[in-house]
Write a structure and sequence with these properties.
This protein is of the alpha+beta class and 492 residues long. It folds into 4 domains: 100 residues, eRF1 domain 2 (Nucleotidyltransferase, domain 5); 83 residues, OB fold (Dihydrolipoamide Acetyltransferase, E2P) (Beta Barrel); 122 residues, Aminopeptidase, CATH 3.40.630; 72 residues, Ribonuclease E, catalytic domain (Hypothetical Protein Ychn, Chain: A), CATH 3.40.1260.20. The protein contains 13 helices and 23 strands. The chain has a 6-stranded mixed β-sheet with strand order 15-16-17-18-20-19, with helices on one face. A hairpin with a 4-residue loop joins strand 4 and strand 5. Helix 5 runs parallel beside helix 6 and helix 8 runs parallel beside helix 9.
Length: 492
């Protein structure tokens, strides 16, 4: 794959855009305030042992002491560091007092972020992940993800990765490695070996005030995942980040060093290739096709649905050809939008109905070819009896919508507002209800500008009839801060 990375850095946020053939294909966003510490490795100090809880509190230089349970301690690794516990190890979880002691230093990894009054949860079973492999120090064996079910593929991967294992380095092959070639796996293994070497050096220096390994930040994770791929340029608009990336690539990803560029331009880097506008368009439900057709994309908690419509596209031949051409064009747009929005899980595609079986086959083939550029694992089924195509795409991170958007405070995620007419009728019913329950001289209605105008103009006759019915005056007051569904009926 050939492309270009644009990296936009501010103190609070880092954004990375992948451009292919001049078009935005992927966007990655990381906000500093939401970066956790899961995956970080520390040289921690045991400050308190709690026999009754089979646990220990560990100082890793955070505000709260971290928590290490006996079941999360690899007793074999502890033996290597403290021979005095040798006789206590057995198949069951040993007494915490035989594993650790106050004042002892241990290399630990965070498996759960601090939450509320609770400190971080730790383990001594260290793992470091790359794109295709997970390093297991001192494991000395190769493992394959259970999600790779094909026996032939499992055997192929194990045959490739086994020579990389030794007493100090064991590897687990991740699900994403299915179909990866030997060179890609070798590059991952070499990357992880270099990282682990750095960790060991920092451990020997007794680095305790900071993490001796931090899970890579966004830009370094992206670069790690692109090791072995063709990137023409990597443009970064922060000099500090650029210097850090130069150092990182020289040590861990030398094949990417030649394309690094610092971008000092006055024009914002994401204005290149129209990235900012493309991101905004990726948050819309409707995606227009060049032919005049369009897609409607709806993301829900359970699944994502994509509906294709011909719109203004009338074609040049007959209706069947028009439908087929729209569906073919839609396959390219669907593949791009799934990557750009990072939509995962179950995806249901409602292509425009096609009676021709050959057209159906060709549309499926076109969708598979378009999706082949995606680095994320996916599967596509054929057309169902209802004419729907079901596909799945592995969830790798939060979708773009979930990162950039929150639930609407007005519609509470429904995606629709009540019409002014509906709100007016609610108000009229509320006046009747309150009048029956309480004795009031008159009523004041506080409502949004649109609803107030509707009551005074469109619903004037209904409002007048209600005043006659209850025998009391009703005054309408505009409240500019109210949303369309918000109102108050006040007794005077």
């Amino acid at each position: 794959m050939s492309g270009e990375l644009l990296v936009n850095v501010t103190p609070s946020e880092t954004r990375v855009a992948l451009i292919e053939n001049g078009t935005l294909q992927e966007v990655h966003v990381e906000r500093e305030a939401k970066r956790g510490i899961v995956g970080n490795i520390y040289l921690g100090k045991i400050i308190r042992v709690l026999p009754g809880m089979q646990a220990a509190f560990v100082d890793i230089s955070l505000d709260k002491a971290a928590f290490l349970h006996a079941s999360d301690i690899n007793s074999k690794l502890i033996l290597n560091e403290d021979e005095s516990t040798k006789d206590s190890v057995n198949d069951q979880v040993p007494d915490i007092r035989t594993l650790v002691r106050e004042g002892q230093y241990l290399m630990v990894q965070v498996v759960k972020d601090p939450l509320g009054t609770k400190g971080a949860r730790l383990t001594t079973d260290i793992t470091i992940a790359a794109r295709y492999l997970v390093l297991m120090p001192n494991a000395g064996r190769a493992g394959i993800s259970q999600r790779i079910e094909d026996d032939k593929e499992r055997n192929r991967l194990k045959r490739i990765i086994s020579p990389f294992c030794d007493e100090e380095h064991g590897f687990i092959v991740r699900t994403a490695a299915e179909g990866a070639d030997e060179q890609e796996l070798k590059q991952d293994a070499e990357f992880l070996r270099r990282v682990w070497s750095k960790v060991i050096k920092r451990k020997k220096r007794k680095v305790t005030k900071t993490a001796i390994y931090q899970d890579l930040s966004l830009i370094f994770r992206v670069l790690r995942d692109f090791v072995g791929t063709e990137l023409e340029r990597i443009r970064i608009d922060s000099k500090l980040t650029y210097d850090q990336v130069v150092e990182f690539t020289e040590e861990f990803a030398p094949n990417l060093s030649h394309g690094l560029e610092y971008y000092p331009g006055e024009r914002p880097i994401f204005d290149l290739f129209d990235v900012e506008n493309e991101i905004q368009r990726a948050l819309h439900r409707r995606i227009n096709l060049k032919s005049g057709g369009y897609l409607i994309i709806d993301q829900t908690e359970a699944m994502t649905t994509i509906d294709i419509n011909t719109g203004a596209f009338v074609g040049h031949r007959n209706l069947e050809e028009t439908i087929f051409n729209t569906n073919i064009e839609a396959t390219q747009a669907i593949a791009r939008q799934l990557r750009l929005r990072n939509l995962g899980g179950i995806i249901i595609v409602d292509f425009i109905d096609m009676n021709d079986k050959d057209h159906q086959r060709r549309v499926l083939t076109s969708l598979e070819h378009a999706m082949a550029k995606d680095n994320v694992k996916f599967s596509i089924s054929g057309f169902s009896a209802l004419g729907l195509v079901e596909m799945t795409r592995k969830r790798t991170r939060e979708s773009l919508e979930h990162i950039l958007c929150g639930e609407c405070s007005v519609c509470a995620g429904r995606g629709h507002l009540k019409t002014c007419e509906s709100v007016c009728y609610e108000i009229l019913r509320e006046i009747v209800r309150v009048n029956r329950a309480h004795d009031a001289d008159k009523f004041i209605v506080y409502a949004s500008k649109a609803v107030s105008e509707a009551l005074i103009n469109d619903e004037y006759h209904n409002l007048a009839e209600l005043e006659v019915f209850i025998g009391k005056d009703i005054k309408i007051q505009t409240e500019l801060m109210y949303n369309q569904e918000q109102f108050d009926v006040v007794m005077m």
